[in-house]
């Protein structure tokens, strides 16, 4: 690293410290990372709205070589044909919705309706932060243009693909890859510098050592068995000076004074009841990882290769029962719509945990009425954390 680059790094770090508000995806290729493309001769993601012509890339040169764990030893793609009949290998029906068929811990839907909700949730995150990412000076510095190589970004738990696509557009000189248990359902043309892979983050990322300048993981805790171990894996994928960025919404609800709402079976609103039931169901499946939002800064500090750990928390009202301006009103309205869609998608999770169908439908219906009519005045809290890879 040159002296000029070192001075530049120190300047960015000073600015950033200013106060501010189990198995594999496909049994045919066990453990491998799966890359979708829209043309066998191009390294870009496919158009998911055209299921008849999708292709799946598994790694460029040396893709047939795998490690003892079954993972591909190269992140580079070769091509495997993928069509709509193959969706059964990554998706399955459960209680009237489509869910991923790879891991049992993540049991929210993975269908079109859920991806549209995730699109909306992405807008909530972006408006709340005022950007696509927290720690903006550090992230932008990590992704500065270089003469020797193209900067690279990985989005773990890409969901609907919105964040990866927006990052590819904001940084057209960077290569962006989104990783998730299922493919996103993207409409329209994808940026040339963006692609998606099907992979289970629990299998690790040894095939991507020191590959990325920014790694982003948002709302992934429910599908992660060992969150501290995942953070160590993601840190290893970063180049020196790269940024690891985390974000998640909490299942804990907050009152009008922004204090945690205590749960009482006798006094709880229907909204509290359905969130409490969902939290317990998620914890039964994911264990302590579901509380990663509160532990992330501590876990990041425990990773020896990381430094400059920071965090932020943002409160957003569920619905426009309080707001100071039109922007805050719009944000609250978007969160209300997102929350209603989230509650609607909890059926598979709660039914799989033994709740009676009538009880689930009752909670969903009554909680939705409370939120639509602004009968409950609650906040949700959104947590962000970040760290830099040591030089």
From TrEMBL:
Ranges of compositional bias, category Basic residues:
18-27
Polar residues bias: start-end ranges: 65-83
Q: Where is the composition biased (Basic and acidic residues)?
A: 1-14
Could you tell me which Pfam families the record lists for this protein? Answer: Methyltransf_23
According to the record, the residues making up region (Disordered) are 1-27, 59-83
Q: Which GO terms describe its biological process?
A: methylation
Segments traversing the membrane: none
**Could you give a GO molecular-function term held by this entry?**
methyltransferase activity
Q: Which UniProt keywords apply?
A: Methyltransferase, Transferase
Q: Which PANTHER family match?
A: 2-METHOXY-6-POLYPRENYL-1,4-BENZOQUINOL METHYLASE, MITOCHONDRIAL, METHYLTRANSFERASE
The protein's name is: S-adenosyl-L-methionine-dependent methyltransferase
Which species is the source of this protein?
Answer: Phanerochaete sordida
